[in-house]
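Title: Request for sanity check on Gfo/Idh/MocA family oxidoreductase prediction

Description:
We are preparing a figure and want to confirm that the structure record we downloaded matches what your pipeline produces today. Could someone re-run it with the sequence below and paste the raw C-alpha cells into this thread? We only need the C-alpha cell string, no images.
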Amino acid sequence: MEKLSQVNRRQFLATAGAVTAGALLANPVQAVAASVNGKMKLAMVGTGVRGTSFWGRAIVENYSDQTEFVGLCDINPGRLEYAKEYMGINCPVFTNFEEMINTTKPDVVIVTTVDSTHHEFIIKAMEMGCNVITEKPMTTDEDKCSAILEAEKRTGKNVIVGFNYRWGILFSKIKELLAKREVGKLTSVDFHWYLNTYHGADYFRRWHGERDKGGTLLLHKATHHFDLLNWWIDSDPVEVSAFGALEHYGKNNSFRGANCRSCAYTSQCKFYWDITKSERMVKLYTSNEKYDGYIRDNCLWRNRIDIYDKMAVQIKYANNVQVSYSLTTYSPYEGWRLAFNSMDGRIDSWEGIPWRRNELVNQAQLNAQEMSQDAKEKTEEYDEIMVMKNWNPDPQLVKVPRVRGGHGGGDVRLHDKIFKDPNMADPYRHAAGTRDGAMSILIGIAARKSIEEGRSVKISELTDIPLMAVRP
C-alpha cells in the first residue's frame, strides 16, 4: 500500500468534493449488497471482543442463511483459533491479510482491528476488489480519512461504517420528532455523556488509553455521539473548540503495577479487576499473550496513558446550530442527558440518570447489558422524551419501549439492514457511508487539535469536502 506521506493530499482533495457530495445521496448498504450473489461471503480482520461477538457470533447465529464466513485474520494465531470456536464456524485462518483475500475471495471484509490501522485494511480490501464494513471510528486522522475516500472513488467499491447507535429505538424516535419539527427551527443542542467507573475505566486498561492506537476517546468513543449529532441536526460541522485533560487515570495516582494479575496493590485499588473470573477473557486474551504481548488487564495508572479522561467540545454547524458536548469517564453512574433548543420549544431526553426512575441500577453490569444481543422490548418499561412548547406549561411525554441490550435495539436493526434486507425502507437515512464516517471523526480530530493548539479549528482545515448547511 502506498504510504500516506506519499499521497498528494491536495491533488486528491481537488476532486473529493464531487465524490463525497454524490456519496451522500447513495445507500452504502445497497451498494455493498448489490455486488454479491447468493450468500454474502464474509472475511474479518481483527478478532477481539467486538469482532468475535457483534460482527461474528451474532451474524453466524442470526444470518447464516444470508452469509458465510470464509476467512478470519489476526496477528495472534491463538486468538484466531479461539475466535473460530466462539463464533461456531470452521473456516481458514490467516495472519497475512492479503493471503486471506487472495485465498478466500470474499465479497465483504469486516474491519475490527485497532482503530489506527483501520485505513490499511479498508483501503487494501477495496483495492483487492472487496466491499468493506468497518467498525467506528472509520480512522484516526485527516490524512488517513482522505486516503480512504480516495480509494473508494478510485476502486468503485463501497464502505459501510457501523454506526449502530443511529438505529436504536429511542434515538430513532428523537430523529423522527426533529424531522417533523415538533418544536420548530433547531438552534442549539446540549449533549452530555457519562461513563461510569466500570465502563469508563476499562478504556484505560486497553490499547484505547494510548492515542497512537485509538486517537483518544474523542475518536474512539465520541465518534458515536458526533455521528448522532450530525444525523439529528442534518447539517455539517464547520468549526470546533475544545478543552480536555488527563486528571484521573494514568500518572495521576500514587501507585501502579504491571497489570491487575501481578499487582501488589489489589487491596488498595478500587479499580482492581480479576480477569481470570471471565472464561472468555482468559481464552481470548490471557492464554494468547505469548503471541503478541497484548495485556488485556493493564494497569489503568500506567504512565503510557496519554489520552484525555475529561472532554468538553463546542461545535458550530453550517446551519448555525450550536452544540455543547461533554464526555466524562469516571462518573458514579452511566448515562446521558440530551436537549434540543428550538425557536418554539425544547426536546429533552435522558438515560441512566438515577433520580429519573425508581429502580436500582447495577453499574458494574450496565455495559455488559448494552453490549449483549438480548434486545427484547419490555412493554412495562419505557424511556422518555419530553416535548415542551413555548407558552405551554404542559409538556408532552413521549414514551418509547425500553431496550437496553444491543445498544438500545440498534444492533439487530443495523444487522437486518446489511444482511437481511438491504432494500428495506430507510426514510431517516440510518445507513452510514464514508461521508458520515468522515464527518464524525473530523469533529473529534478538530477537537483534539483544538486542545493541543489552544484555538478553535475549522473543519475546512482538515478536508475540502463541501460542507452543507442542509443535506439533501
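Thanks, this matches our download. The CA atoms of residues 13 and 464 lie 6 Å apart.
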